[in-house]
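Notes, p. 3: input format for complexes.
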Amino acid sequence: MKILRHPHEVFPPIDYVRREGASVGLVPTMGALHAGHYALVRQSAAQCDKTVATIFVNPTQFGLHEDLSRYPRTLEDDLEGLAAAGADFVFLPQESHLYPTGFSTFVEPPAVSLPLEGTIRPGHYRGVATIVLKLFNLIPATTAFFGRKDYQQLLTIQKMVEDLNVPIRVEACETIREKDGLALSSRNRYLSPEDRFRAVGIYRSLQAALKVFELGAHETAALDAVLTQTLRENSIDHIDYARVVDAQTLQEIESVSSQAVALIAVRLGATRLIDNWTFQT
Ligand code: AMP
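Output follows (281 residues plus adenosine monophosphate):
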C-alpha cells in the first residue's frame, strides 16, 4: 500500500492507472477507522482494480463549537486496517496543503443539504461538498464509495455530482452495525458505558417505527411520535431531530406513499450520533 502525502503526488499515479484502463475506487474518510469504513474499502477492492482511501479530518465541515480538536486520531491502526482491507493507495494530506493561506472558494451545496443536519449544523455540508469535490479533482477515480449511515451526506454528494457533471459514479454502501444494532461510528468510542447502553435506543426507535409502518401506519406524524417516544423510553432526551421525510428530497411529507427515510440525530453526553432507516411501501 502506497502512502501519498502531498496533493502534487496523488494525481499522477491514479491518472496513470486510469490511462492503463484500470478502474479506481475512492473511499474518503476522516480516520479513526472501524469495520464500517473497512467494509467500504473491501467493496471498492472487490469492484475496482485499484482502491484509494483518504484520511483527512476536514476542518471546514466542523462548526465553531464542534468537536474538531477532540475528533479521534488513530493513524497507525488505520493504516494497518486499510492495508488488510485491500487499499492500494492512502492519501494523507496536510490541512495547509488543502487549505493554503488565501483559500476562499467553496461549493454551494444542493437543496437536499438544507433541512435537518443542515439546519442544526449550518455550513457543515458546504465544507463536506467542498472537500469531496477537491478529492474528486485530485483523485480521478471511477467510483466513490460512501456509507448510507450518513444518509443526508450521501444525497448531498450524489446531487452535487449530478448538478456539477462530475465524472464519477457514487456507490452507496450499507450501514455496518454492532450486534445490538448501534451503527458503527468513530464517535462511539467516546460513549461512557452508561451512554453506550442508552445508545441502542437509536436503533430500537428506528425498528419500532419500521414495525408500526409495516403494520400499516403510513402517516409521518404517527411514525415521528414512535421515534421520539422510543428514544425517550431509552432515556435519550437530547433529540436534535427524529423524523420521517421523503427519501430523495428530505422534505416533510404527510404520509409515506413510496419511499421515505427516518432520520435521527441525538446527543448522548458530549457525543452526537446519527442514524437512519429507509421505509418502502
Ligand atoms: P467518516 O470517516 O465518519 O467521515 O466516514 C467516512 C465514510 O464511512 C462515509 O462515507 C461514511 O458514511 C462511512 N461510514 C461511517 N460509518 C459507517 C458505518 N457504520 N457503516 C458504513 N459506512 C460507514
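The two ends are 44 Å apart (CA to CA).
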